[in-house]
């Protein structure tokens, strides 16, 4: 009987050790992918091309570009053509009490050209405002692009990590099923008590619950991936960090964020917009000088029947000086000044936020490095501990629950390692985003960079035309 129990103990130890080795192999396979799998740079390039959020922001920027030709229209003449025609019944009573009547068919055609010569520099300042709005919009677009690329990184690494966690939990369930089966056989042989089988069964059910939770998390991350990237995830390659593009130290990170982050740049342009808007509002207090030329031809439009037709041409200069408009211009000027004060405060707030975000990103990235190193050490120690417990269990010095606990410690350590590796990649990209360098050019992604200035130059000097440069 003692020999049979010893052989059963040795068999149990060998099987537990075999499943522990398989578990480690499956987790490693989950973290690696075949050579033909999709890489993180490829996923980021696809998101940069197809993500609805960034494409909507590009459309918004193209609409902002149109503010410039609208402002430039103030320098150009306004031409209006007019045409009128109709029927007119005329009945004139003459001094000799005779009646003169006629049915006229009057018509008139004319053209009027108006050119503003001076409007208190309103046109010049309006053009300046529009150009500054374009510059601010470009920085806002760049900031949205950073956000989309960071969302792509997060979605990619979440899928990669959750795939590895699912495989690890599947291996864990297989290990627990084998342990439960062995424990049941040993119970039938009288080698263990019903408590051991109950413990093995309870741990198996916990493993099934953990597997289900991992599968749910994977399904959610896959849906998010499809939303951000534009297609469902397939096999994914391991993601690499981008520390080579990041700052050298915390001081460099804060300085770069303070000066180069697109949110800070956009807020700076918004200050210039608000300051220039003051001069636009003040222009309403200046005189306006216009030159108007007109020419017209009319026929049968004289109800006195004294003339049959009239041809006219004129050139008129006009000067208008506002005297009192009820206080509208003064109120608009005061309002513009307050908005300028607000925009300067917003700029300081954005700079402070950028500085804080850069420090947080730097600290998180450094912390992620430590977390990965600690998790790797924990996995190595847990692996050694499991092997030791298995040997002790085969010698009768450890119980089944000791083996189960040690194996559970190992699977939890590997789950923490997977999470730490995911966080490490995200933290490096977050740091790059915090300093304003998370873009196609810096990362050298295999996709054309969207250049907003192309559309700007296409429409800036357009005098007419309803179609957009894209043909819509």
What does this structure look like?
It contains twelve helices and six strands. It is of the alpha+beta class and about 475 residues long. The protein has two domains: about 1-75 and about 120-285 and about 325-460, Outer membrane efflux proteins (OEP), CATH 1.20.1600; about 80-120 and about 285-320, Single Sheet (Outer membrane efflux proteins (OEP)). Strands 1-4-5-6 form a four-stranded antiparallel β-sheet, with no helix packed on it. Strands 2-3 form a two-stranded antiparallel ribbon. The chain starts with a helix and ends in a 13-residue tail after the last helix. The relative contact order is 0.16.
Helicity level, as a percent range?
Answer: 55-70%
Given as residue ranges, the uncertain stretches (5+ residues, pLDDT < 50) are: 1-35
Average pLDDT value? 88
CATH architecture assignment of the largest domain? Up-down Bundle
Specify the structural class: alpha+beta
Q: What name does the CATH topology of the largest domain carry?
A: Outer membrane efflux proteins (OEP)
Number of strand segments: 6
Report the C-alpha radius of gyration, rounded.
39 Å
Order of helical and strand elements: HHHHEEEEHHHHEEHHHH
Largest beta-sheet details? 4 strands, antiparallel
Give me the number of helical elements: 12
Cα distance spanning the termini: 88 Å
Tell me the strand percentage band: 5-15%
Number of domains: 2
Globally, the shape reads: elongated
Widest sheet: strand ordering:
1-4-5-6
Can you tell me the CATH superfamily of the largest domain? Answer: Outer membrane efflux proteins (OEP)
**CATH class of the largest domain, please?**
Mainly Alpha
């Amino acid at each position: 009987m003692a020999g049979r129990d010893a052989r059963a103990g040795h068999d149990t130890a060998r099987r537990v050790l075999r499943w522990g080795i398989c578990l480690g192999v499956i987790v490693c396979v989950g973290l690696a992918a075949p050579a033909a799998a999709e890489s993180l740079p490829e996923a980021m390039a696809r998101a940069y091309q197809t993500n609805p959020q960034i494409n909507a922001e590009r459309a918004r920027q193209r609409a902002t570009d149109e503010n410039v030709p609208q402002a430039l229209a103030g320098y150009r003449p306004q031409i209006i053509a007019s045409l009128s025609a109709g029927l007119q019944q005329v009945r004139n009573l003459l001094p000799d009490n005779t009646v003169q009547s006629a049915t006229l068919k009057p018509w008139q055609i004319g053209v009027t050209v108006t050119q503003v010569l001076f409007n208190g520099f309103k046109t010049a300042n309006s053009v300046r405002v529009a150009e500054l709005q374009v510059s601010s919009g470009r920085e806002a677009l760049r900031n949205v692009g950073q956000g989309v690329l960071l969302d792509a990184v997060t979605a990619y690494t979440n899928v990669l990590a959750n795939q590895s966690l699912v495989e690890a939990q599947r291996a864990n369930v297989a290990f627990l099923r084998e342990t439960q089966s062995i424990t049941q056989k040993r119970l039938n042989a009288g080698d263990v008590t019903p408590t051991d089988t109950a413990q093995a069964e309870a741990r198996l059910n916990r493993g099934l619950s953990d597997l289900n939770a991992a599968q749910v998390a994977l399904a959610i991350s896959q849906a998010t991936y499809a939303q951000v990237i534009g297609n469902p995830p397939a096999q994914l390659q391991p993601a690499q960090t981008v520390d080579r593009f990041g700052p050298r130290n915390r001081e460099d990170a804060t300085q770069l964020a303070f000066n180069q982050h697109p949110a800070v740049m956009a807020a700076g342009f918004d200050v210039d917009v608000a300051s220039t808007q003051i001069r636009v509002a003040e222009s309403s207090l200046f005189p306006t000088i216009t030159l108007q030329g007109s020419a017209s031809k009319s026929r049968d439009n004289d109800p006195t029947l004294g003339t049959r037709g009239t041809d006219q041409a004129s050139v008129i200069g006009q000067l208008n000086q506002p005297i009192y408009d009820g206080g509208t211009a003064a109120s608009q000027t005061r309002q513009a000044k307050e908005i300028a004060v607000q925009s300067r405060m917003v700029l300081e707030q954005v700079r402070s936020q950028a500085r804080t975000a850069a420090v947080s990103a730097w600290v998180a990235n450094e912390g992620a490095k430590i977390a990965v190193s600690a998790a790797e050490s924990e996995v190595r120690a847990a692996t050694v501990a499991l092997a030791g417990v298995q040997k002790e269990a085969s010698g009768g010095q450890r119980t089944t629950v000791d083996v189960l606990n040690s194996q559970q410690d190992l699977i939890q350590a590997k789950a923490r390692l997977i999470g730490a590796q995911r966080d490490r990649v995200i933290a490096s990209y977050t740091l790059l985003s915090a300093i304003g360098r998370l873009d196609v050019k810096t990362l050298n992604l295999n996709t054309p960079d969207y250049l907003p200035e192309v559309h700007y130059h296409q429409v800036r000097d357009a005098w007419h035309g309803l179609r957009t440069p894209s043909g819509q």
